[in-house]
Design goal:
There is one protein chain. The protein is of the alpha+beta class. The protein is built from 2 helices and 5 strands; from the N terminus they run αβαββββ. The protein has a 5-stranded antiparallel β-sheet with strand order 1-5-4-3-2, covered by helices on one side. The longest helix has 19 residues, at 2-20. It starts with a helix and ends with a strand.
Length: 96
């Protein structure tokens, strides 16, 4: 019985981690090699990365991008992965 609770807890933690890191339908995740501290440089890096992937990208302000005609909200997550900090960029679709 105790094993079942531990297993269930592990599954819940795994699902929560994936949800927080943007692994959901229609979300766009980007991980950069270097960290971006200035918002303007970070936004430009996101735009360039998406354009390199063949996307039509426009930054409209207030942390919102239009990617291939859909509006996305820019979310940043910082997580330690094996002792190394990871800066994850998540573009979450905005429902109008």
């Amino acid at each position: 019985m105790e094993f079942l609770f531990i297993l269930l807890g592990g599954i819940v933690l795994f699902m929560l981690f994936n949800w927080l890191m943007g692994y959901r339908k229609e979300h766009i995740q980007i991980d950069f090699e270097e960290r971006h501290f200035k918002e303007g440089e970070y936004i430009e890096a996101i735009r360039q990365e998406l354009e390199q992937k063949g996307k039509d990208v426009e930054y409209v302000g207030e942390r919102k991008f239009i990617v291939d005609g859909k509006t996305y909200l820019f979310i940043e997550r910082n997580v330690s992965m094996g002792g190394v900090p990871l800066q994850r960029t998540i573009l979450k679709p905005v429902n109008k």
